[in-house]
Amino acid sequence: SVMNQLLGxxxxxxxxxxxxxxxxxxxxxxxxxxxxxxxxxxxxILTDSLDLLLPEGDNIVAVMGGTTMALTAEHMGTLETEKxxxxxxxxxxxxxxxxxxxxxxxxxxxxxxxxxxxxxxxxPEQLSLETYNSLLQEPxxxxxxxxxxxSNCVVHSIGRALHMAARRKMSDDEMVMLKQNNAVAxxxxxxxxxxxxxxxxxxxxxxQLKDVQKISNVVAIAGGKSKAKAxxxxxxxxxxxxxxxxxxxxxxxxxxxx
Length: 258
Ligand code: G3H
What we know:
It contains eleven helices and eleven strands. By secondary structure, the chain is of the alpha/beta class. Bound molecules: glyceraldehyde-3-phosphate.
C-alpha cells in the first residue's frame, strides 16, 4: 500500500542519516538516472527544506553547478517573505562547466524562481595564473567574494569523479592522477576517494571545503543508482549539519553495502 511505501521510505531516510551521521536525509521515489521527474521533485523538496532552514532576515545562499543543480533550480518555488530575503551567489568560480550548468546560471535561476536576488562572479574559464590573480584584485570581484564568504547556506550536488573530470576536460595527467588515487566522488571542485578523503582539488576562488564545515545550513542533492558509490564516498566525511536529498535508487544501493 501507499502507506507501507511511505513508512518504508521513512525507514530508509532514517537509516541513511544515521549511517552517515548527518542531520537529515530525504528520499524521493524513483531513479533520477532515467526519470527526469525525480529532479523536478528535488526542486520541491529543496524549496521546502530551505523554507525550514533559512531564518528570517537576510540570507546568503551559495550554490554550486552541475546538471542536478540546474534542473532542481528550474523547479523551485517562492522562498521570499516580508521578513526573509535571500541572495543567491555562486559558491566557487568557474571550474570548467558548460554555461547553462555553471554556478552563476544556477544561482540566477534559483533567485528568479524563489523571488530572491543574485550576484554573479565573472571569472572566465581557462585564464593564465597571472590574469586570474590580477582579475581577483578587481573591486567588483572582491565584493562578490566577500558576499560568498558571508553565506549562511550552501547547496551543492555530488558527482562521479572520472565522469566529472572528463566533462570538465581535465588534462590526461590529472586523469591518471585521479585514477591512481582511486578518486570516486567529486563535489565543488574537490575529488574524494572511497573513504571520503580529499585526493585532489581544483584551485579556484570561492568557498573551500573547510569553509563549508562552518556554514550552518548545508544541503547536498544527488540521486541515481549510478551515483550511489560517489554519494557514499563524499557523505562519509560530509559536514554533520548536511541535509541529503536523494532518490530511492541511490538510497537502496547505498544501504546494500552497509
Ligand atoms: O559539480 C557537479 C556535481 O558534482 C555533479 O554534477 O549534477 O551534473 O551530475 P551533475
